[in-house]
């Protein structure tokens, strides 16, 4: 979310690589486009993966505080598979968060990358719906004080 220049000593930490002051809004959505986790308030200069590594969302997934099933059998198979969420390349690879294959992927890896990208559409669509519903998120928010904005988003 873009914001006017913060009135604090560390205002450079809110600058993105595009020289825009911002705070970060990260979320996890289910297939029904419902947020199941939201993180708000990280500095715009920070990377998504680093923000996630320090987030409550990461802790919830690691401790299974969200009550997600650990494994489930595949249809018509005896093998079970872990539940996971798809993330982009900025996020760390771990048992509950998987990313795309990089470099020159094989044909099977290309198919996986395509399906992975389709699965990530849930969160992309959710943020589109959020920005359409709350159009202020598409603009530079006219506040120099981030605390009220942070409280509003929480």
Automatic annotation (TrEMBL):
<feature type="domain" description="DDE Tnp4">
    <location>
        <begin position="9"/>
        <end position="146"/>
    </location>
</feature>
<dbReference type="GO" id="GO:0016787">
    <property type="term" value="F:hydrolase activity"/>
</dbReference>
<keyword id="KW-0540">Nuclease</keyword>
<dbReference type="GO" id="GO:0005634">
    <property type="term" value="C:nucleus"/>
</dbReference>
<dbReference type="GO" id="GO:0046872">
    <property type="term" value="F:metal ion binding"/>
</dbReference>
<keyword id="KW-0479">Metal-binding</keyword>
<dbReference type="GO" id="GO:0004518">
    <property type="term" value="F:nuclease activity"/>
</dbReference>
<dbReference type="InterPro" id="IPR027806">
    <property type="entry name" value="HARBI1_dom"/>
</dbReference>
<comment type="similarity">
    <text>Belongs to the HARBI1 family.</text>
</comment>
<keyword id="KW-0539">Nucleus</keyword>
<dbReference type="Pfam" id="PF13359">
    <property type="entry name" value="DDE_Tnp_4"/>
</dbReference>
<protein>
    <recommendedName>
        <fullName>DDE Tnp4 domain-containing protein</fullName>
    </recommendedName>
</protein>
<dbReference type="InterPro" id="IPR045249">
    <property type="entry name" value="HARBI1-like"/>
</dbReference>
<keyword id="KW-0378">Hydrolase</keyword>
